[in-house]
Amino acid sequence: MTSVLSSVTPRLTVSDRIREKLQQGILTRNQVDDFASFLSQVEQAFLKHPIITQNAYTSWFQQGKATDDELRHFIKQFSVFSNQFLVAALLKVINSPTLEQSRASREILLNELGVIYRKLDGSIAAQSAQTEEEKDQQGDPEVVSTEGTVDGGICRFRAAHFEWLIAVAEGLGLYYKDLGQRKHGRLTTLHFCDELQRLYGSEEPDIAEGASFAVENWAAAGFWQELEDGLTRIKQTRYPKLRLAFFTWHNRVEAQHAGHTLEELENVYFQPTFDRAQFIQGGRAILDAIAVFWNGLESDRINRVYV
Fold first, then answer.
1. CA-CA 20 to 30 A from 115: which of 56, 89, 154, 241?
2. 3-state secondary structure the chain
3. In the predicted model, what is the mean pLDDT of the chain?
4. Sorted alphabetically, which InterPro entries does this protein's record hold (predicted)?
């Protein structure tokens, strides 16, 4: 399978959108230089965080050597984070400071719940004669799209991301009753879920903005590729019918989300009320919580703890 994300830590640079505003006189050279300096600060604080540059658990997982017990434990803990993220995403919608930001947050939440992205040009994905294997790797066009908007999109139960994860779990002997609820989570997993609600869904807009920026750039930095690589190896060697659409789709779409967060930052940074310190605070704190989650899985693996 062709890799779509690189494990190399990305760089944050001033976009063409900002350069155009400079040329048009909307922004001054000092403002743009100031923004470039802030991006360097964010890059240092966020993108060089150890959980992005050196995730021991996902590096191990990529090898595809997880035992059945280790694999089921991973899926169960990941399902708790994935399902509980809905609470944080709803809080982000509720606490959005502007209608535009509320809509951007609803795009994420509603897609998570099963509203399929509709392409802005009105086109519909071609219903090609895909095999079930191709649908699993590339996405079933009836339930998957990586671009467009949920506005005017179709809702399908089986397009909900959690249902895709259930499909993975069922191939390993886990079912709906085993997944996604707080009672299934380790303390380290629940800490991450609680911090997502506190930070990603914060009432303080710049705390939430920083947390959102950090989460999306963490997601785009390569861990999805490591998970997909490991699961693909397991599928090839042990579970030929294992369904991986949950992981392959997220691997394809997360880089796009990270690009959107940069545009969101550009929209708020030049507002007089923007608080740089709170933005950095929110991002660093959520990355620390992400580290608790992954390091907890690594500790469970080393100590052979399974739930």
1. 241
2. CCCCCCCCCCCCCCCHHHHHHHHCCCCCHHHHHHHHHHHHHHHHHHHCCHHHHCCHHHHHHCCCCCCHHHHHHHHHHHHHHHHHHHHHHHHHHHCCCCHHHHHHHHHHHHHHHCECCECCCCCCCCCCCCCHHHHHHHCCCCCCCCCCECCCCCECHHHCHHHHHHHHHHCCCCCHHHCCCHHHCCHHHHHHHHHHHHHHCCCCHHHHHHHHHHHHHHHCCCHHHHHHHHHHHHHHHCCCCCCCHHHHHHHHHHHHHHHHHHHHHHHHHCCCCCCHHHHHHHHHHHHHHHHHHHHHHHHHHHHCCCC
3. 89
4. Haem_Oase-like_multi-hlx
